[in-house]
Write a structure and sequence with these properties.
The chain contains 1 helix and 33 strands. It is mainly β. It has a 5-stranded antiparallel sheet with strand order 1-4-10-7-8, with helices on one face. Strands 2-3-12-5-9 form a 5-stranded antiparallel sheet, with no helix packed on it. A 5-stranded mixed sheet has the order 26-33-32-28-29, with no helix packed on it. The longest helix is centred in the first third of the chain and has 8 residues, at about 1-10.
């Protein structure tokens, strides 16, 4: 058992690297890739990559077996067991309900099978999960039906001993619950959507409800009652059919393909086919609907003839701004720098080359630098003695841009405001506070103003001091 477990944990799956959209992440979905043909119970490990996740003993049945109870379609726990494979030549077999209450030798309410994924799930991505089940009906020994069966994810290989009537303490990503599974002739689809947390690397199938939580229907109760499910065609598929960005080269139409299994489709344009021909730039989204599962994806479509690269511009001294590549692709700036943005803080001509599937595009802009500060003059002394000369404290601004004065404030030596004025016309102090002359002293002032550049205010603050002489 130890060697098998080690082999399972360190197996390198074929097909490493990023998988194509929609490729099944389950490496042996139909239990058909075998290390050996099953010849007795508890041999799920003969199916490549699959193992038991508890002290339970799940079975493997296949057409290659020569055993009376293990060769499909006459495979199961009684002479009346019969189920043809949904695909391939075999399937797995789990106990999913166990009424026995023996404390010794009991493996919980359900058996569980576990497999590594071909690659870890990606955080925030949507996945479609599906597998098929069929109950093994036996009117002599276990006459009835149950509901609960699901699939759960873990970040690492998971194994736990479970006691009588207990279930694994995992939260299933999808689960059938509340509806009895009664179709013993066909296969019942268990499916749903799942948004990944990121890093999930193993999938486990079984009943994650205890015996008391499992819904059961008996035609005639016999003790002990145990229910079994055949398991087939497990799949986990990423839904990411659309690129993040699509380019219309020289405005020529392009076709989006959202094809995904047996889904029906709903585009934000009103289209209902898996294919959508695009002739205009914009954002397009699609919903793929499979049963109760709705999967969504979005693409931004750009026309290479229409781009927004910064035109020639002027920046203020000691400030900077970023240039952004207007199209996706491989980028090289004039100084050899790569990346989709570039920090500019010096004057010059900046050139960007973008290479993508539509060809090579060159963008150029010239950046000039100016001193945008206003020239501020506020007298350092004034004499509010009503002689008509220098009786008021005034501000004088010389700006190369439009400006507006927000507030001019004067404070006494204790930091209390003795004057406030908004706008140039109101920024004149006569040396009084609440109608009374302020004493001869040194006062501190602050000036808040905006320089208006490209229609936007650039907020500035200046300060100084002034002396009243009487």
């Amino acid at each position: 058992m130890t060697n098998i477990l080690k082999h399972f944990l360190f197996t390198v799956l074929i097909g490493g690297g990023q998988l194509l959209n929609g490729q099944n992440l389950i490496p042996n979905p139909g239990f058909d890739d075998l290390n050996d043909c099953p010849y007795e119970h508890s041999q799920i490990h003969f199916a490549q990559y699959w193992r038991s996740a508890t002290n339970g003993t799940p079975d493997l049945f296949n057409g290659c077996s020569t055993g009376d109870w293990f060769q499909v379609p006459h495979a199961g726990h009684s002479k009346d067991s019969y189920q043809a494979p949904r695909s391939g030549s075999g399937y797995a077999y789990l106990a999913v309900y166990n009424e026995t209450q023996y404390d010794q030798g009991n493996s919980g309410n359900s058996e569980y099978i576990e497999t590594p994924l071909r690659e870890p799930l990606q955080a925030g991505k949507a996945y479609f999960i599906e597998f098929y089940v069929s109950p093994d009906f036996n009117p002599t020994f276990y006459y009835g039906y149950t509901d609960a069966i699901g699939l759960a994810f873990t970040d690492t290989f998971y194994y736990q001993q479970v006691a009588a009537r207990q279930a694994l303490p995992l939260i299933p990503a999808i689960e059938n619950r509340g509806k009895l599974i009664k179709d013993t002739i066909g296969w019942t689809r268990i499916s749903g959507c799942y948004t990944a947390n990121g890093g999930e690397q193993y999938a486990t199938i079984g009943n994650f409800r205890s015996t008391d939580e499992t819904l059961v229907e008996f035609a005639e109760f016999t003790f002990p009652f145990i229910n079994f499910f055949y398991i087939e065609d497990v799949q986990i598929r990423l839904f990411d059919p659309l690129p993040d960005t699509l380019l219309l080269c020289d405005g020529l139409p392009a076709t989006l393909n959202a094809g995904f299994l047996d889904a029906t489709y709903r585009w934000n344009t009103g289209g209902t086919d898996s294919l959508l021909t695009i002739s205009q730039a914009g954002q397009y989204s699609v919903e793929a609907i499979i049963g109760a599962c709705i999967l969504r994806d979005t693409v931004l479509v750009l026309d290479t003839r229409v781009h927004h690269f910064t035109s020639d511009t002027v920046i203020c001294k000691d400030e900077s701004f970023r240039l952004f590549a207007p199209l996706p692709g491989s980028t090289v700036w004039s100084d050899g720098h790569s990346g989709n943005n570039y920090l500019v803080d010096e004057p010059g001509i900046y050139e960007l080359t973008v290479i993508n599937t539509c060809g090579e595009f060159v963008f150029t802009t010239q950046v000039a630098v100016e001193d945008c500060s206003c020239r501020i003059y506020i007298p350092s002394v004034f004499t509010p003695n009503a002689d008509g000369v220098n009786d008021q404290l005034e501000i004088f601004l010389g700006c190369d841009y439009d400006y507006q004065v927000r507030q001019f404030t004067v404070y006494d030596r204790w930091g209390s405001p003795v004057f406030q004025g908004e706008g140039v016309e109101h920024a004149r102090w006569d040396g009084n506070y609440k109608g009374h002359p302020m004493p001869q002293d040194v006062y501190v002032w602050t000036l808040e103003y905006d320089i208006i550049r490209d229609g936007l205010p650039d907020h500035r603050i200046d300060h100084g001091d002034v002396t009243i002489v009487r």
